[in-house]
């Protein structure tokens, strides 16, 4: 088993601003980057840096409409991080239906 994919995801989560961005996307759904700059009170250049890290980790998705980018929480990926599969890696004595 390779832990590299988990390393990237957890590194992306290990930042307070990125957690705030994920929280806001969870609350608001599909959100334009222009609105996110005001919501998280961050210049677009810094916000873009954090969004790229989240995007590369697969924690959010991006859709471009015209000149604007819209971001949304990747529910499947967030669900996988909180899944029984990951739980089984670190708690092998617990047997549940979703365990590998």
UniProtKB/TrEMBL annotation:
InterPro entries: ArsR-like_HTH (IPR011991), HTH_ArsR_DNA-bd_dom (IPR001845), HTH_MetalResp_TranReg (IPR051081), WH-like_DNA-bd_sf (IPR036388), WH_DNA-bd_sf (IPR036390). Residues 1-93 form the HTH arsR-type domain. The keyword Cytoplasm does not apply. The keyword Transcription applies. Keywords: DNA-binding, Transcription, Transcription regulation. GO terms for molecular function: DNA binding; DNA-binding transcription factor activity. NCBIfam families: HTH_metalloreg. This is Transcriptional regulator.
């Amino acid at each position: 088993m390779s832990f590299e994919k988990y390393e990237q995801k957890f590194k992306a989560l290990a930042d307070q601003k990125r957690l705030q961005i994920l929280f806001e996307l969870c609350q608001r759904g599909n959100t334009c980057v222009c609105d996110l700059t005001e919501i998280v009170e961050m210049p677009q250049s810094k916000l873009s840096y954090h969004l790229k890290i989240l995007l590369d980790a697969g924690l959010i998705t991006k859709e471009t409409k015209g000149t604007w980018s819209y971001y949304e929480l990747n529910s499947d990926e967030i669900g996988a991080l909180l899944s029984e599969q990951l739980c089984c890696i670190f708690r092998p004595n617990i047997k549940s239906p979703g365990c590998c």
